[in-house]
Amino acid sequence: METEIIKVNPTGFDAKELEGAGEILRNGGLVAFPTETVYGLGGDAKNKQASKAIYAAKGRPSDNPLIVHIAEFSQLEEIVREVPDSARKLADAFWPGPMTLILPKNDVIPMETTGGLDTVAIRLPSHPVARELILESGCLIAAPSANTSGRPSPTKARHVAEDLSGKIDCIIDGGDVEIGLESTIIDLTEDIPVILRPGYISLEDVEKVVGAAKMDPGILSEDAKVRPKAPGMRYRHYAPKGNLVVVEGSKEAVIKQINSLGEKGVSAGKKVAIMASSETASCYKYGEVFAIGSFEDEDEIARNLYGMLRDFDTKGMELIYSEAFETPHMGRAIMNRLLKAAGHQVITVS
Ligand code: TXA
Ligand code: MG
Q1: Fewer CB near the last or first residue (10 Å), C or N of the chain?
Q2: 121/48 Cα distance (integer angstroms)
Q3: 39 with 104: CB under 8 angstroms?
Q4: 316-326 mean pLDDT
């Protein structure tokens, strides 16, 4: 299949430019589109065949449920059994935006979309193109991240094309995304809200709105028996082809350790990459240094992470050493993705 690419200016486009994409969705086809977090691969959430096609295009296990994207809060009421107070409060605080809520589903959304679960994940994105596409298509849009399963989520239309060209009907190129990490997922089916995936909206942000909340023990624990509740958080994810190791500890000790590992790698004839902050990048003497962003600007670090992980593959990097980025607000989300990419290979130095 030939994948059509539609370029739109996210800050000044006409709804008409999305008419064709809306029609593809109504007919059961697949359209990748920008959101404020990462690019999504959309299909009509009420159409079982469309959901099956999404799984097939991504090579995604069929028990890993999709997020349903809506444009108005009333569309949430259409697809869930009840709307708890916490959902209203969180929606008031963070929608439109990078938050996904898990609630018990009714029969409107088929099990094919929710990976066989009787709960449904719902997000009301703030990106103008995502919102307009939902309205224009008249569909609720089921959309996972628009990458091949296991690869980093796409933050540019080019990343989507790399993975899915020829496998989907259309890509809407709305430029680079703003946040670069997937939405915070909050499960509202238990006694207190549980964060199943950290993101731009932090645990502290959630607590300010609903009082008590907690992180899913499954994503904090190194113990393989404590399984994450979100099926997608159980899989190997984001890993570059080269071997990625995170080095954490005091700044001086980290620089010394990475330089020593880098030197060994280079003298063994390996292609070595160093992932560092812009403040420390000049301290590394071996291999190719990639500056991910400033410690003073954690949004920049988050926004560049997935693109950089992809670049390591494009450039054939074999050994990758990264600093840790425990930044104040998004540190939990950034480190969750980085540690997954590293298969939890961490060296602690002091
Ligand atoms: O920012 C985002 O959330 C992006 C954009 C496109 O909206 N989407 C995204 O979707 O990251 P995806 O499919 O890559 O990740 C969805 C995650 C998976 O880990 C999945 O297992 C979890 O949400 N999930 C979906 N429905 C769930 C449910 N009913 N219960 C628990 N986890 C669920
Ligand atoms: Mg994903």
Answers
A1: C
A2: 16
A3: no
A4: 98
How confident is the model over 333-340, as a mean pLDDT? Answer: 96
- Ordered by where they begin, the domains of the chain are 4-220 (3.90.870.10), 243-348 (3.40.50.11030)
Tell me, using a 6 A CB cutoff, whether residue 336 lines ligand 1: no
Q: Checking DSSP bridges between strand 170-173 and strand 243-249, what pairing results, if any?
A: unpaired
Query: Could you give the CA distance from residue 140 to residue 123 in angstroms, rounded to a whole number?
Result: 10
pLDDT of residue 235: 78
How far apart are alpha carbons 274 and 40 in whole angstroms? Answer: 29
Q: What percent of the chain has pLDDT over 90?
A: 96
Residue bearing tokens 């007919």: 27
Which pLDDT score is estimated for 222?
Answer: 73
Nearest bound ligand to the CA of residue 118:
1
Ligand 2 centre distance from Cα of residue 24 (Å)? 22
For 1-19, the pLDDT digits (tens) are: 999 999 999 999 999 999 9
Ligand nearest to the Cα of 39, by number = 1
Question: Residue 47: CB partners within 8 Å, gap ≥ 6?
Answer: 28, 110
| Ligand 1 within 6 A of CB of 233 | yes
| Ligand 1 pocket check for 65: Cβ under 6 Å | yes
E strand intervals along the chain: 4-7, 31-33, 40-44, 67-69, 99-104, 119-123, 141-142, 170-173, 184-187, 194-197, 214-215, 243-249, 272-277, 288-293, 319-323, 346-349
40 Cα nearest atom in ligand 1: 6
Give yes or no for residue 40 CB within 6 A of ligand 1: yes
pLDDT score of 180: 98
303 touches ligand 1 (CB under 6 Å): no
Cβ of 201 closer than 6 Å to ligand 1, yes or no, is no
Which tens digits make up the pLDDT trace of 56-69? 999 999 999 999 99
pLDDT at 238 over 80: yes
